[in-house]
Every structure is written in C-alpha cells, then in structure tokens.
Write a structure and sequence with these properties.
The complex is a heterotrimer of chains A (638), B (488) and C (104). Chain A is mostly helical and 638 residues long. Chain A is built from 25 helices and two strands. In chain A, strand 1 and strand 2 form a beta hairpin. In chain A, helix 3 runs antiparallel to helix 4 and helix 15 packs antiparallel against helix 16. Chain A starts with 6 loop residues before the first helix and ends with a helix. In chain B, 74% of the residues lie in helices and 3% in strands. Chain B contains 19 helices and two strands. A two-stranded antiparallel ribbon of chain B has the order 1-2. In chain B, strand 1 and strand 2 form a beta hairpin. In chain B, helix 1 runs antiparallel to helix 2. Chain B is globular. Chain B starts with a helix and ends in an 8-residue tail after the last helix. Chain C is an all-alpha fold. Helix content of chain C is 81%, strand content 0%. Chain C is built from three helices and no strands. The longest helix of chain C has 31 residues. Classes of the chains: A mainly alpha (638), B mainly alpha (488), C mainly alpha (104). The interface between A and B is large, with 53 and 60 residues.
Chain lengths: 638, 488, 104
C-alpha cells in the first residue's frame, strides 16, 4: 500500500478543494458525504498501512515525491516517512478525525457555514497528516503552520463575534511565538548537520555527539524546538490561547484542541528523541515545565464554570502530563497517553457538545443539572470518558497515566506524589463537572428545559465508538506487572534512541502494584468527596459577580495570567508602535530628511537677494570678479 | 536583439498610447503589455539557465566615451524581467474599472515605465543602467503627481528629489570607476575587473555611493521615510508599480552592481548594512501594528519585507541569495495583490481607515478568500509564495550570525500581529453602513487576482521552477565575489 | 628697440587709461547711451593695443584683427542701438535702473 500513501493526505485535500470551491452550491448532504468520505478513505489506507507495519512488511520507508526547496547545498524534499510512530499518529488522526467529522455533520447541520466548516476541517486533517508524515523537519513545519492556520480559521469560525475573532488571533499569534523557536531550531539544525532530513540528522547526531557530555549546540536546538512545542501544545508560558480557543465549534475543540493538533508538540519531540536524549538539560526543563503545567492548569480547572473551559484546562493539564513523561525520557509512554487522551478527551468534548446542543448553546454548568434523564447516551458515554481520564482500571487513562507515574517514581517519589496530586485534581474537577451537569435538578430556564433532547444518531454513534475506545484503548500498553507486555512500547521501540532503551523495569513488581493501588485508592476517595459536595450537599458554584475568597478568586481569574501578559507584552508593544511612529519616524528621521530640503530652501532664500535685478550691480560684481581673478592669478604665479 | 525588443516594444507602445484617443488607450496598453508578456515567456522557455549571458546585444552608442547599448540576461535578470512583464498586464487590467482623466497619458507612462524597468534589469553597461534607472523615475513621478491623492505635490517632490539625490551619488561612483578602466569603458565586466583591484578605501567609497542609491530606492531604514507617504498618495496602480517592481530595482542593483563590483567592501560593510536592514524589519513591523490607514500599513509591511531580503543578500550566502531572488518575485506578486485588494476596498467604501471598516466577509466571500490567501502568503505560511524565500533568507542570515537571525525572526510574530489585526478590523465582525453594500469581485477583478493566486501557490509548492533558473547565475555570482559562507 | 619699447609702454598706459575710463563709465553712469559709449571706449582701447603690438611685433595680423573687430563692433552697435530704441519706446526712459525686472 506504500504507493498509495500519498493519497492519505491528498484525499482530505481533495475534499477541501471540492467543498471549498463549490462552497454553497453543494447541498449539505453532499458536503457532509465528501467531507466524511475523504477522511474515511484516508483512514482505510492508513489501516492497511498499519497492518503492514504491524506484521513487519514495512519497517521504515521514506517516500520521496519531489524537490521542494533546493538552493545551494540545501536540498529539501517533499517526502513522507512511514514508520511505527507516524502510522500510530495517522491512525489516531484519521480514525478520531473521521468520528468527529461524522459527529459534525449532525452538530453543524443547522449552521449556514456548514460547507465552510467542512472545508476547514478537511484542510486541517490534510495539514495534520502532512505534519506527522513528513520525513524532514521542514515538511513537519509546513503541517505545523497549516494546522495553526486551520485552528485560526476554526476558532474564529463564527466571525461575526469579535470575541471569537480575538481568540482566534490570539491562538495564531501565540503559536507563532513558538513557531519562531521552532524555525530557529531548524536553522540551527541546518547549520549543525547540513540537513533537515530526520534520518541524516539523527544519524549524524549519534555519531558526532556522545551522551554524557554537555552539548551546548544540542541543548540550544532542543530548547528551541521545545519552545515551538510549548506554543502548539499549550504549555507554560504559551498556554493561554487554548482555553480561549474554545470559542470554536465544539467538535473543533475535540479534534484540534484536544485530540490531534495540540499533541503535535509531543509528536515532534518523540520524533526527534535522539536529539533530546543527548541533551539531558533540556529534558529536565521539559520535565519541570510539563509537571508545572499539569498542576497549574488543574488548579484553574477546579473552579471554572464553563463546561468547555473545564475541559480546556483539563487538556492543558493532560498535555503537561505528556511533557512530563517526555522529560523523563519515556517517549513511548507519552505517545500512549496521546492516544488514550485522544479517545477520552475527544469523547468528553463531543459529549459536552451534545450537552450544549441540547441546552441550545448554554455552556455554563451552573445552569445545567439532572441532564442524565434527558440525555442517557451522552450521559453514559460522558461518564465513561470521565472515569477514563480519572484513571480507574481498566479504562484507557489508567494504563497510560500509571505508566507516567511509574516513570516518575523511578526518578523520584516526590515527582510521583506531585503527579498523583495532579491526577486527583483532575478527578475532582471532572467529577464536579459530571455531577453538576448530569445530577441534581435542572437549573436552567424553562425554555431550555423544554428543548432538552438526546442528540441524533449521527452524533451519538461517534460517542459510543469513542466510549468503547476509551474502555479498551489502554490495552495496547498493559504493563508487565499486570500480565501484559506493553505492546505499544515495543512497537515504537525502533524509533526511540538506543541510549534510551532501558532494559527491564527498574521498579520491582510489588512496588509498582503498590503505587497503582495508592493512586487508584486516592482517586476513588476524591470521587466520593466530589459526590458528597456536589450530590449530597447540592453545592452549586456561586454566580458571576459574587464575592469569592482570595485564593478562589485568583484561581477563577486564571492567576491573572492574561492580564499580566497584556501589561507586560501587548501594551508595551502598542506603546512602542506609537513611540516609533510619532517620535522616531516623524520627529527624528523624517525631520532629518526634510531638514536637507529646508536647508537648501533657506540657503537659496538668503542667496536670492544677490539677484536684485539691477544691471549696474551685476556689472559691478562682474568687474570685481575679474579683478579678483586677475589678482589671484598673479599671486599664484608669484 | 531579443532583449532590445523587450525594451523597445513597451517604449514604442507607450509613445503610441500618448497619441491615441482617451477611450482606446486602456485596451491598447493591455494588448501591448500582453504581447510583451507573451514574448518574454517565449524567451524564458528557450532560456538555458547554464548560459552566463543569453540574448545579449552590444551596439556602440557613444563611441568616444566608450558607452555602448549593451544588454543581455542571465538567470537573475530574466526572472525579474518576467516579474515585470507578468505584473504590468495585471496592473493595467486592475485599472479597468477605474477611470482616469487623460488615460492615454496614464497608460503611456505605465508602458514607458515598463520599458525602463526592463532596461534596468538587462543593462550590461553602467551608463545604460544609469539611464534606465533614472528613466524609471520619471513616469512614476508623473503618475503620482497627476493622478495622485491629497497633498501629492509636496510628497512626490520629496520622493523625486530624495531618490534622485541617491542616484547622483551612484553616478559619481560610476564616473569614478569609468575613469579607472584602462581604455575608458562602461562595460560591466570591465567594471568588475577594475572594482576588485581598487584599494579598500576606494572600494568602501564606491560601496557607500552605490549603497545609498539602492538603499533609498528599496528602501532600507533609515532612508525609507519617503515611501509610506508616496505609497499612500499614489493611485493604486502607481503603488503597485512602485512596490511590486520598482523597489526590486534597488535589490537587483545590490546583487548586480555592489556584490561582484566591490566584493571586499561588501564583506567588510555587509554587517552594518545587515544591521540597518534588520533594524528596519523590526522597526517597520512595530510601526505597522499601530497604523490606522491600511494602505500605509502595507507600506510599512513592505519596508519590513524588503529589509529581510536586503539583510539576506548582504550575507552573500548562496542560500540567502537564492532566497532573496525568489522572495523578490513572491513579494512583487503578493504586494501587487494586496494593493489591488486595497484598491477594491477603496473603490467600494472610499475609505481605508481600519476603524471604519468591518464585516466585509459577510458579503464578499470570493474577495475574502483571495484576501486570506494574500495575507497568509505575506506572513510566509508554508506552501504559499512567501515561504521558500523567507526560509532561505533566514538560513543565510542564520549562518551569517544566529543572533541577527533571531532578531529578524521576531518579524514572524509581528507579521501575524499586524496582518491578522487588520484583517479582523476590515473583514470580520458585523457589517456597518459602509460595508453592508460591499459588492464582491467583478470578473475583471477576478482576472487580476486569479493569476496572482495561482502563482502564489506555485511558488510555495514547487519553488524549484524558479530556483533552478536563478541557481547557476547565483553560483557564478558567488564565485565572482570570492569567499562566501556556505553549508558544510 | 629700446625706443620702440618705450613707445609701446606709452601706448599701454594710454590704452589702460582709456579702458579704465570705459569701465568707470559703465559702472557709474545710468544713462544707457553713455554706458554704450563707454563700452565702445573699452573696445577701442583694446583695438589701440592690438595695433600697437602689431607694429611692435612686426606682424600684420593684429591690424587685420582690428579691422575685423571694428566690423563686428559696428554690427553690434546696430543691434544694441536698436534694442536701446525699443527700450526707450517701452519704458520711456534710458535709465538703466528702470530695467530691474530680472530678479527673484
């Protein structure tokens, strides 16, 4: 199937072109069919590739199509790389992507921008596939920017609302900050290795640089790449765009801002794990940033009242976990969590979308409650997603999260404890969300109540499929201690740097079991606490504008990070723009230029008085002139 | 012979256009420009990039002074000639829905301008180069003066005198070099031979003289203050000529008349030139963020883009020279598109104040799509025309000095800020009474933008078409300048 | 030879005096006719010199030049006087200071 691999990204591209060019001329059914069908086609090809990779027919194949940019000694090709990692990512993207497309066909059916929406969504899948399939950093970058563009277009999908437009702009600009880091990282790779091709770069890196020796160049490269990852994957300090990005349609949040695009940073780091493994300093930075983000975002998530905002902070937090894993060198674990997270977070977002759909656009959980009766399928699947993210066995989240925690314990028990703390917070806010939304009594308006309904089948089928995946998805990485052999880890091992391949687990089985027991026990305890607070005591978060305690207020306002950025970055930039324009440009530079003109003007104004029109004066001047000439001539001759 | 036809065809057509009745000039000029484009396309298809000089002609002009009408094209020249011949028909077409008083003179001047621009790009004789260089200034001066907007006299006067002052310095340097040639010749190769034998002080002086002329034309910070005013006041077609093609004269001048001429000085004084360019990038980008008038905003954006090209070219790296050349093409095409978008906006709403526009996306979908593509090409999204050039330029600058590249890279972020902000203010949100009746693009307007968009994607997806043409010429150039930085 | 050079000296002095008178006349008088006459005086001072040196060098070409100059001067006077008449007709005066229109 290798010769058809090019179709994988091209099918969504064709879908985009058909829908985009025909735009409103096509009926919605055709648009939906083309939009979903193109992704399904890609998914089919991906599956055949996956089987070939699984049975070993394909190990690592580079497919070169044409010279993209070649100048001087630089020769960058448009080429794809098919190996376990890219196939894993492709499966997630096209698989989850197809489900979300299907869901969207129902969710967006009443929107007048239906065709536009599917065009963007197909373009997104195209870009995302380019991102993971590229065999060099520049093709990755092309996809990287492409998904940024689609994210921009889709966050600002309802472009009449300027708040949404601002959110879209913010997302793109913050991503660009990261992109600059990525770009500089690539440039440094070019200068250091003379190529951007993964195979060439990694091979050289392993021969030139020896592990254990400090490598300033590699540290610089990896830190710059990581800066790119913080932008795309919403890590401190560039995470603030992701919660705002919830302005987009909910399926978009599920696809782009939970399951796929935001994991691009993780994919990129896993892809270049050879470089990162040779730069332990960077790994430490990633570890710290990842863990900090995980905890930081979780604390904010505890008090948010917008159903999508809670999920958004949860996503930031879970991405933090993935980076935490990367920082510890557990690359395959991070990908494992990417996969399980894609399942349960997409499920949760789609479930939230279903709720919002039923609530006629209401997103505030303070106005919900008791929805389980009206939305049984949504409720059941949402519960599955919540349990999965909380990490209760045997749901998907348990295995991936447990693997991360096991690695943390290997490094240090303190890291493990912090990791568990984050997991507990996640459990708490997720169950708070579930209890407030689905349990208790309905708190919305009568109008909303009369409209409550379960979503149509086209929306609930993806929910059910994702729910199944959230249940069984974890079985690709069952640890040895539970009788598995961690299939995903061995599947991905060819692309992991040799120096990172631990032989055997450092933890004894009993320790590992004990750790699992503690974390699961604590999670159950937290669920009970949440149930007591939000079901038995029927606590409802206080409405907007009421007095909050100081720490609560800080959390509710997201630590005022947006405000801090605005004062520290945005305002000075505007101020600088004014100063440059009004002072430097007009007062200094242009004045200086004009001063030349004015000087000539003034000088001639003075000199023109000599031109007084009196012939006598002219003749007098002439005679004086001749006398002077003769006089000086004589002097020179003397 | 072929090159001479390229020069004289528009010149003759321009003169004929002067004599035509007012209502016929438009069609005539368009046909003439199309013929020129077709002919240049034929030449391009037969062009062999490996040739050092194709379609060359050399006829003595003023024998006693050693001046000859000597023209010819290498890979760099032919690309810029193609840019000119491609854009002029579009620029003429873009004016089809506008009416100018005395349009026969207007189109005549546009065609004469084309002749001069082609001449600049193909001249192989310093004197001839200077003649075309100054000739190009005259039509655009009159276009701006006669058909321009408010306050045009003062602004065009400043523009004319400023650029002329720079050119005069170049004339001094040309005469100086002429006097150094053994048998008194303005031939480019003799100039090259003489230039590299000069003492370093003399090289420095020649460098400064040429640099000032080109820096004002491009323009590079801090010689740019004529530019935003002139762009704002000139009619849209004039702005397209200025930004799309004329500023490339400055960059081309650096490539053709500085780097191989005084290589030693180019190495020594490259750093200050690069630093000025990079300051200009950031400075202009930050100013652009706060502009209220969209045309003026794009004028500053143009300064930023040109700054990057200039910085890349002065690094003398092969990658960045190639990047600079392709970026000249893509910037030319892109900026003409953007100024046309501005023209359409102004035509419909009679204002370019960002704060008074908004919501156009609701009523003009085709216009929106083209605008979005131009916008993202302008901020160098991969697979659009702006990307390969910008990337290669960054590669070159980064090799030269990573810190400078990092500073210049901030423009990647700032570009997103000003472009997206202005897009939002113009196109998004709710319509107001100015924009609610905004008519989507008409056929003739689509015909202008569609070729531009096709080329944007072509250059983004398969830039090799263009890189291959200029590649050998750039290699030869680098060889001529002696040392160069390159990847291992 | 001594005698001759002495005589040339005398001619030189005379010509210089005549020339200086002419210059002063041009500079200080306002009447255009008198200025015109002063110019003629300067011209003739030069003619005198040419003749004197022609004899001194024993070379006839100097005297040929004088004839030539006289012919040209006559032509010039014609034109000049014609202009003068026109000036008088237009301004009603022959005062040179009335002709000060040629200024900024």
């Amino acid at each position: 199937m290798l010769q058809l691999a090019w179709l994988i990204p091209v099918l969504p591209l064709i879908g985009f072109l058909i829908i985009g060019l025909a735009n409103k001329k096509l009926p919605k059914a055709v648009v939906g069919f083309v939009g979903c069908g193109s992704i399904l086609g890609s998914f089919a090809i991906v599956l055949t590739l996956l089987t070939e990779v699984l049975n070993g027919t394909i190990q690592s194949e580079t497919l070169t199509y044409f010279n993209w940019i070649s100048a001087g000694s630089l020769d960058i090709k448009l080429s794809f790389l098919i190996d376990p990692l890219s196939v894993t990512m492709m499966t997630i993207i096209t698989g989850v992507g197809f489900l979300i497309h299907l869901y969207s066909a129902g969710y967006m059916s009443h929107d007048e921008g239906f065709a536009r929406y599917f065009a963007y969504l197909n373009l997104f899948v195209f870009s995302m596939l380019i991102l993971v399939m590229g065999s060099n950093f520049l093709v990755l970058f092309a996809g990287w920017e492409g998904v940024g563009l689609c994210s921009y277009l889709l966050i600002g999908f309802w472009f009449k609302n300027n708040d949404y437009n601002n959110a879209a702009k913010k997302a793109f600009i913050m991503n660009r900050i990261g992109d600059l880091g990525f770009l500089l990282g690539m440039l440094l790779i070019i200068v250091t290795f003379g190529s951007l091709e993964y195979s060439a770069v990694f091979e050289q890196a392993q021969t030139i640089f020896k592990p254990g020796v400090a490598q300033p160049v590699l540290i610089a490269i990896t830190l710059l790449l990581f800066l790119g990852a913080t932008g795309k994957s919403a890590q401190i300090p560039l995470y603030t765009w992701l919660p705002d990005a919830m302005a987009g349609p909910t399926p978009v949040s599920a696809l782009i801002h939970a399951a796929t695009m935001v994991t691009a940073g993780i994919y990129m780091i896993v892809r270049s794990n050879v470089l990162f493994s040779l730069a332990p300093f960077t790994l430490e930075v990633i570890e710290i940033i990842g863990l900090t983000t995980a905890l930081f975002a979780a604390t904010i998530g505890l008090v948010q009242n917008d159903i999508k905002k809670v999920l958004a902070y949860s996503t930031v937090s879970q991405l933090g976990y993935m980076f935490f894993a990367l920082g510890m060198g557990a690359y395959s674990t991070a990908i494992f969590h990417v996969a399980t997270h894609a399942f349960f977070k997409a499920l949760l977002f789609l479930g939230a979308g279903s709720v919002i759909h039923a609530m006629s656009g209401e997103q505030d959980i303070r106005s919900m409650g008791g929805l389980w009766k009206k939305l049984p399928i949504t409720f059941a699947t949402f519960i599955i997603g919540t349990v999965a993210i909380a990490g209760i066995p045997p749901f998907a989240g348990f295995f991936s999260k447990d693997e991360i925690l096991a690695h943390a314990y290997e490094h240090s028990p303190i890291l493990w404890a912090l990791g568990v703390l984050g997991a507990l917070m996640t459990t708490f806010y997720m169950f708070r969300l579930v209890f407030l939304t689905f349990f208790g009594s309905f708190r919305g308006t009568e109008h909303q109540k009369s409209h409550l309904h379960e979503s149509p089948l086209i929306m609930t089928i993806p929910l059910m499929v994702l729910a199944v995946l959230s249940i069984i998805g974890g079985f690709v990485g069952v640890p040895e201690v539970l009788g598995g052999h961690n299939f995903l880890k061995s599947f991905l091992s060819p692309i992991i740097a040799p120096i990172n391949q631990h032989t055997g687990h450092a933890l004894s089985h009993s320790t590992e079991l004990m750790l699992m027991g503690i974390s699961v026990g604590a999670v159950l305890l937290v669920i009970i606490i949440a149930a007591i607070v939000y079901i038995s005591k029927k606590a409802v978060p206080s409405p907007e504008g009421s007095d909050l305690s100081a720490p609560h207020k800080v959390l509710y306002n997201k630590y005022y990070i947006d405000e801090i950025y605005r004062t520290l970055v945005v305002k000075p930039l505007y101020w600088l723009g004014d100063i440059f324009y009004k002072v430097f440009e007009i007062r200094i530079i242009d004045n200086f230029v004009n001063a030349w003109g004015k000087g000539v003007d003034r000088g001639s104004a003075g000199l023109r008085f000599l031109q007084n029109g009196s012939i006598s004066f002219y003749m007098f001047a002439m005679v004086i002139g001749i006398i002077l000439i003769l006089f000086f001539n004589t002097i020179i001759k003397l | 012979m072929e090159t001479s036809i390229l020069i004289f065809l528009p010149l003759v057509a321009g003169l004929i256009s002067f004599l035509l009745p007012d209502n016929r000039a438009k069609q005539f000029a368009f046909v003439a420009a199309l013929a020129e484009f077709a002919y240049s396309l034929v030449l391009l298809l037969q062009f062999n990039p490996q040739e050092t000089l194709a379609y060359a002609t050399s006829v003595p002009w003023v024998k006693s002074m050693g001046i000859s009408f000597s023209v010819g094209m290498d890979g760099i020249s032919i690309l810029l000639v193609m840019l000119t011949t491609f854009l002029i028909p579009l620029i003429i077409l873009s004016s089809f829905r506008r009416t100018f008083a005395n349009s026969n003179y207007f189109y005549g001047l546009v065609l004469i301008m084309q002749s001069a621009l082609v001449g600049v790009f193909v001249a192989r004789d310093a004197f001839l180069f200077y003649v075309f260089w100054e000739l190009a200034l005259i039509p655009i001066y009159f276009i701006a003066l006669i058909w321009g907007g408010e306050n045009r006299k003062k602004i065009t006067f400043k523009f004319f005198v400023y650029t002329l002052a720079g050119s005069l310095l170049m004339l001094v340097a040309i005469i100086y070099l002429y006097l150094q040639t053994p048998n008194g010749s303005f031939d480019i190769n003799q100039f090259y031979a003489v230039g590299s034998t000069l003492s370093s002080t003399d090289q420095a002086l020649v460098f400064v003289a040429f640099f000032l002329a080109f820096a004002i034309k491009m323009p590079i910070f801090p010689f740019h203050t004529w530019q935003p005013d002139t762009y704002t006041v000139t009619p849209a077609q004039g702005t397209m000529l200025l930004s799309g093609i004329m500023l490339k004269m400055g960059i081309y001048g650096v490539i053709r008349w500085i780097l191989p001429l005084v290589p030693e000085a180019a190495h020594t004084y490259g750093m200050p030139a690069i630093i000025l360019s990079v300051i200009g990038i950031i400075y202009a980008s930050i100013i652009a963020i706060k502009q209220k008038d969209f045309k003026r905003l794009i004028a500053y954006v143009s300064i930023a883009h040109v700054g990057l090209i200039a910085a890349g070219i002065f690094t003398l790296g092969e990658e960045s020279l190639q990047g600079g050349i392709i970026q000249m093409l893509s910037h030319g095409i892109n900026v003409v598109g953007l100024f046309f978008v501005i023209d359409v906006l102004f035509d419909r709403t009679k204002t370019l104040e960002l704060s008074s526009l908004g919501g156009i996306r609701n009523v003009a979908p085709f216009f929106t799509v083209t605008f979005i593509i131009l916008l993202f090409s302008s901020i160098a999204l991969p697979f659009t025309g702006g990307f390969p050039g910008e990337f290669l330029l960054f590669v070159g600058i980064f090799q030269y000095n990573p810190w400078i590249a990092a500073v210049a890279g901030v423009s990647v972020i700032l570009g997103a800020v000003y472009m997206l902000s202005s897009f939002q203010k113009i196109m998004l949100g709710e319509t107001n009474n100015l924009t609610s009746g905004f008519a989507d693009l008409f056929t003739s307007e689509k015909l202008v933008l569609i070729p531009i968009i096709i080329l944007i994607f072509w250059m983004g997806i398969y830039p090799d078409t263009f890189l291959e043409i200029s590649g050998p010429a750039v290699k030869a150039l680098i060889k001529g300048t002696g040392t160069s930085l390159s990847l291992k | 030879m001594q005698v001759l050079s002495n005589t040339v000296n005398n001619y030189l002095v005379l010509a210089s005096i005549l020339f200086a008178i002419g210059v002063m006349g041009v500079l200080v008088r306002r009447n255009i006719i008198i200025i015109f006459m002063s110019i003629e005086l300067m011209l003739n001072a030069i003619n005198l010199l040419l003749v004197a040196f022609s004899v001194f060098h024993n070379d006839a070409s100097g005297q040929v030049f004088v004839f030539f100059i006289m012919a040209v001067a006559a032509a010039e006077v014609t034109v000049g006087l014609a202009i003068l008449v026109m000036i008088y007709r237009n301004t009603g005066s022959v005062d040179i200071n009335s002709l000060n229109k040629l200024k900024w």
